[in-house]
Write a structure and sequence with these properties.
179 residues; mainly alpha; 0% strand
């Protein structure tokens, strides 16, 4: 790819945009994965607690009328969660979020290497352009797997983090006109 076929400044800005987008996606799927794992653990815990009903219910602390009613509620919640859990497909979501997190983390790492090279060499070589195109093509494939209904509040909070972590004004930009 010859230098005269593209605007270097535009392409460098696209690289920086992708760099920030990959960090945002990495953070987003890490947060979704963590939260989904927490929900799954809580459901598993409550299901297990309710499933051990006869042993726990037999403890002396559960012998009062009030505690018997509480235990009945815990057992009912456990039963409902055991029914709902497969319908919620938390394990499918954990698998999907884990895969997306891994893919976006890899893409971010590759872009971070590219951006660091740009900062050191202050040039956009054909090799760097090819590396960027490969990364961009792979991440374009990931879009089909992305969350169809992203959490806007989470995205906004993470975007603020990304903007604080990657200050574009401190990144190298080529001169607009080359002689």
């Amino acid at each position: 790819m010859a230098a005269e076929n593209f605007d270097e400044a535009v392409l460098v800005n696209q690289i920086y945009d992708e760099y920030r987008a990959m960090l945002l996606n990495k953070k987003y799927y890490a947060a979704r994965l963590t939260k989904t794992k927490q929900y799954n653990f809580a459901m598993e815990f409550l299901i297990a607690a309710g499933a051990t009903g006869s042993g726990v219910a037999g403890l002396a602390v559960w012998k009062t009328d009030y505690s018997t009613a509480v235990w009945a509620v815990v057992s009912a919640i456990s039963i409902l969660l055991a029914i709902a859990k497969p319908l919620l497909k938390l394990t499918d979501r954990i698998e999907s979020y884990g895969k997306l997190y891994g893919e976006y983390a890899r893409a971010f790492q590759n872009l971070e290497t590219l951006v660091r090279d740009l900062q050191v060499y202050k040039s956009l070589s054909d090799e760097r352009i090819k590396a960027f195109i490969q990364i961009r093509n792979r991440t374009a494939e990931l879009v089909a797997l992305d969350d169809t209904d992203p959490n806007p509040r989470l995205v906004a909070a993470l975007q603020t983090q990304v903007n604080n972590e990657i200050d574009v004004s401190k990144l190298w930009l080529p001169t607009a006109v080359r002689g």
